[in-house]
Amino acid sequence: MFIGSLQITFRLHGVFSKKQKRGVANSLKQKLRNSFNVSVSEIAEQESLDFLVLGIITLATDTRSAHSAVQKILNKVEATASEEITDISTEVFHA
User: Fold this and answer.
1) Short-list 9, 87, 7, CA closest to 50
2) Would you say residue 46 has pLDDT above 90?
3) SS3 for 29?
């Protein structure tokens, strides 16, 4: 089994409360869950109103499938997110 991991950092503009940030995060998480069989969570910068860091995990039977899934997820995020992406980190490893 292979695990595809993706960490994406967004710079949030026009967010002035934790409730607004949660709304942005929940919208992105739901879009990804509806499109892919992934686990998504806010993994850092929980207290910051300026940044949102999402961790996304997917499972695959081989490394090629894991890399492909991570790339498709990243493409979806880049196409649908209105927030500025400031950092992307991907990793595929054997479990």
Assistant:
1) 9
2) no
3) helix
